[in-house]
Amino acid sequence: MTDSGKLVALWCKRAKRGPMDPCAQATLVAGRGMRGNANQGGKRQVTIISAERWRELQQEVGVELAPSARRANLMISGLDLVHSRRRVLQIGDCRLLIHGETRPCERMEEACTGLQAAMRERWGGGVFAEVLTGGEITVGDPVAWVEAGGMHTP
Fold first, then answer.
1. Which label site among 14, 62, 111, 117 has the fewest CB atoms less than 10 Å from its CB?
2. pLDDT on residue 12
3. What pLDDT is recorded for position 59?
4. Is 152 among the domain residues?
5. What is the pLDDT of residue 71?
6. Could you write out the three-class secondary structure of the chain?
């Protein structure tokens, strides 16, 4: 993986357990999350998965699933999310503080037998984050790790 990547997909969940609606752009609100998304506030404002890790999981369980089955808000490519707790991710002009690993729930097992167990390894469920700096994000935006003050990490 590199030190930078891009935002490859976005989904908004209008209600808890509701469908994941794909979108080309979204507004992130500092301290709240994604405008229009069911989860607002707290430390789990936005959830993020890696496109590369999702492909690995599909190969491991031997099934092809739409990435929306993971029920994350954002899919990025080019960055490894493993052990990223307390790192700051910049997407376009927005900054997100990663608070931890998103543990896979029983809904993953409903999507495919064996998926929940596979996702428990190497942060397969992705991460959850708090929006530090809000703004508009669009599929295709650059994504990079940055220092809390905005400088790129080595």
1. 62
2. 94
3. 86
4. no
5. 81
6. CCCEEEEEEEEEECCCCCCEEEECEEEEECCCEECCCCCCCCCCCEEEEEHHHHHHHHHHHCCCCCHHHHCCCEEEECCCCCCCCCCEEEECCEEEEEEEECCCCHHHHHHCCCHHHHHCCCCCCCEEEEEEECEEEECCCEEEEECCCCCECC
Is the separation of the CB atoms in 9 and 22 below 8 Å? yes
Residue 142 in domain: yes
Domain that holds residue 29: 4-146
CB 51 within 8 A of CB 75: yes
- Identify whether 46 is part of a domain: yes
Q: How far apart are CA 146 and CA 69, in angstroms?
A: 29
In a domain, 154, yes or no: no
Give the total number of structural domains in the chain: 1
**Cα separation values, 26 from 13, 106, 113, Å:** 12, 27, 32
C-alpha 123/C-alpha 153 separation (Å) is 21
- Burial call 112-142: b when 16+ CB within 10 Å, e when fewer: beebbebbeebbbbbbbbbbbbbeebebebe
Spell out, as residue ranges, where the chain has pLDDT lower than 70: 1-2, 105-116, 118-120, 148-154
